[in-house]
Give the backbone structure.
Amino acid sequence: MFWNRKKAPTTAGTARAGVLNRLLGDRRLGWIGFAVALLAPFVSATNYSLSVMTSAALFVMLAVGLNIVVGYCGLLDLGYAAFFAIGAYASGILATTYGWSLLATVPVVLVAAVLAGIIIGGPTLRLRSDYLAIVTLGFGEIIRITANNLDVTGGPSGIYGIPGLDLFGLDLSDPVAFYYAVVVIVALAVVGAARLGRSRMGRAWRFIREDEDAAEAMGIHTYKLKLAAYIAGAVWGGLAGILFGAQLTAISPQSFTFLWSALILMAVVLGGMGSTPGVVLGAIFVSLLPELLRDAADYRFFVFGVLLIVVMIFRPQGLWPSTASERAPDRRPDPAEKEEAWQAQ
Amino acid sequence: MAGAVSVSPGGAPSTPPDGGPRPLLDVQDLHLDFGGIKAVDGLSFSAYDGDILSVIGPNGAGKTSAFNCITGFYKPTGGTVLIDGEDITGARPSAIAGRGVSRTFQNLRLFGELTVLDNVRAGMHLRIKQSALDALLHTPRFRRSEREATEEANRWLDFVGLRGDRGGPARNLPYGEQRRVEIARALARGPKLLLLDEPAAGLNHSEKMELLDLLRRISALGVALVLIEHDMGLVMQVSQRIVVLNFGKQIADGTPEEVRRDPAVLEAYLGKDEDEPQAGDTEVPHE
């Protein structure tokens, strides 16, 4: 299926992206993106634009989290909104019913997300690609329908009156302050996911994505590592859920439909699976474009759909695909010298 | 995940503590049935430290199936596999790899989209000391372990004599170079025992000569080598012992000289066409 398909041999597009990556460097690129996010309210700071930008930032966090599962590890997850819902509901219930501050709910949400990752991932990760996709789709629906039918989650009307973000006595419920708080948290989430992706564990995820049997033959316990990817994705989703509740002050089962899971997955695929700048770009694209197309009125989502198809036709590997390249090692032996060494032996 | 013996390109071979005759790999009465077909039928052989052992036999004789049983990709239906006296029959492939058994695949199984260096780092997975927290915070331990991994990956690539670009995707290398990378990856696992499934397939004459030299240098590291190979010239030159299979059964076990003269081998093996590909002996299953 499409997420497993090997990318076409190096095209002009990927070559250009490679040059871009090298020119900008991951770190400098990150700072530029961060600066753009910080300066955005100076361009427009109406309540509407702040709300759109905050949503976009949250969407980036979700996409980066799903990218760990889909992009790094190659596991197709069609129910990612479930983790988002678990985070939002866990913190929302604690904050409204028990009067906790949102910050205090973070450890609980972390535990809930990890548990959900284990419960959902544990039995399903023995399955491969297509089967896994179907099962995760089912779990996404189970979580939503459960929330719809429980009293503690407020049933179909959900939970309302979720307090704003409050960090150590500093009130961040003002739209501007909240936007900046979200940008900082999301930036940390992006850097964290990217760092995980470049570590021993992140490499193991990619080995599994490329060839599960070969990874296993190298001593990588593929089941445990797939579960780790799933849990990491759940944690990112759960934490984004807290911020989502704080932004909207009310959540209901309608906030966590399959469309959400599909849109987040679309951001990952559109941006370039496994590529941090790509996925961030994809998330911004998917969340902002419908807003920018408001002038098209009734044709808004039609135009949106057409644009997505156009992008996927012309850039099937994503807007900013990940490229495998490392700076050439400096201690490479001279080929001629090596040849002589072979002959001599 | 302990038990991995670290072997470095310049390092001394690991010798068994007692120095006794206990084999490193001991396969006893191995059976593998697929329905009614006996892919492996009562195979027994052993390999010692620094051995170069070849497993030969006509296509479909059960060589790759035997490899897959030893490395955990198939669960044998009977018999035992001992590594250093420890029973690993039916264990997970990653657990067996953790015991110091490394392998290559008949059809190259590199991580094609990843860099050559990353491919070799895969072999070091169990030895790289860093936690997720180290990675998130970029602690000195993280930086050190990454630097060491890169240096070691480069040393292994030097050892196998890779000439191509190490920073680019592995799939961009020519075929012969990809074979070297796969061997480097398997060596980076730090194996006591290395199983090579047709390492010479698809190589030209000069590449085969280089492979011959590489196999001897691997053996000199103290790694026991077991190879499946169809190139008889290479097999006769490099092997200390040869095990011959036919229809899943072992029909001969001896030095190249003995095997060459064995009437059963001549009858079963050398008279047949060895290049004809056959199903059932080629693929590692995708479950």
